[in-house]
Amino acid sequence: MKPESLIAPNHRGYYTVAHLAEHDAHVYMCARSPKKGTAAIANIKKTQPSANIDLLQMDLMDLTSVVAAVKHFLTLEAALHGLVNNAGIMATPFEMTKDGHEAQWQTNYLAHWVLTEYLLPLLLRTAKTLPSGSVRIVNLASSGHLGAPKGGINFQDLSLKDSGPWSRYGQSKLANILHAKTLHKTYGPGSPSARNGEGEIWVSSVHPGLVETNLGTSVMESGSGILGIFSVLRMFGLMWPADKGSWTTLFCAASRDMKAEQSGTYLEIARRFGEPRWQSGAARNGKLAERLEKWTEEWMRKEGWVR
Q: Is 145 within 8 Å of 173 (Cβ atoms)?
């Protein structure tokens, strides 16, 4: 059986899809625009005519579409070997979604949490029949989490309306890391789920490094002074193309070289000079991870997105 993977991509995610399909995986690519998603698949098939890629329409700014897409996927497949929570927006101007959440908080974190919650039963059923490490979840995080507000997560005002776009981005990326740690604790190697034969899932949060992707569009629209920094980094060759930016994700999603002890960690395998690879104190805070999980589960159930 070919491994099944589900990926919600941005520009970097395009290459994640392409490389997994190249290695005979059946990949479901999530896209907000069916037209753009279909074009991306067609472009991959120009060099990989036999690529097995299907499209799921999903708008992370609209949780109704997330739930509809994942429910549709669950009618199609009886196994799932990998989930890559890759899509995101960066440093966008303040905006609230139709669901009542700040745009970066919902797009980068809440929507992926809901997607993962629906897919966990299938991931666990798949894992029960396979060797350790056969089923994995990858959350795309960022060194941007270092810019999260004091205390990490501002539960009193998760919209961070009075803060800047980078603080809101940092909070959402920190949530990705904490979510991965919670998933690892619950389902990873040595977890109760693994010990009881209920399924073992390897979970990673990934810092892809400084990468040229379409996330930069939002930075330009925000008028941030960081554009000057990006220009200098490009000049010295420290910005990677999106293809290379997918390498750490691919390692965590599919590499046979990944070890069980790497599950639950925050990874950046390239280790380039000057790249901030460390985690903040908040990202290492187990109690904060537990509090975030409790808050998320309570609110997503209260709003009717999960049962």
A: yes
Question: Residues 137, 188: contact at Cβ < 8 Å?
Answer: no
pLDDT of 4 reads: 74
The question of whether 169 is a catalytic residue gets the answer yes
Residue 96 DSSP symbol: B
Beta strands in 228-297, from DSSP E residues, in sequence order: 266-267
- Alpha-carbon 86 to chain mean position: 4
Query: Which DSSP symbol is given to 213?
Result: -
For the beta carbon of residue 112, count every other beta carbon within 10 angstroms. Answer: 27
Closest CA to 188 of 293, 261, 114: 261
- Which of 14, 28, 109, 173 is catalytic? The answer is 173
Per-residue model confidence as pLDDT tens digits over 234-282: 554 555 566 677 888 999 999 999 999 999 999 876 655 445 568 999 9
Q: Beta strands of 197-239 (E only): which ranges? A: 202-206
Burial of 34 (0-12, 13-18, 19+ CB in 10 A): exposed
Is 186 exposed, middle or buried (CB count within 10 Å of its CB: 0-12, 13-18, 19+)? middle
Rounded CA separation 16/48 (Å): 14
| Polymer length of the chain | 307
Q: What is the pLDDT of residues 164-174, one digit of tens each?
A: 999 999 999 99
Token pair in block for residue 152: 């990490």
Which one from 15, 118, 169, 266 is the annotated catalytic residue?
A: 169
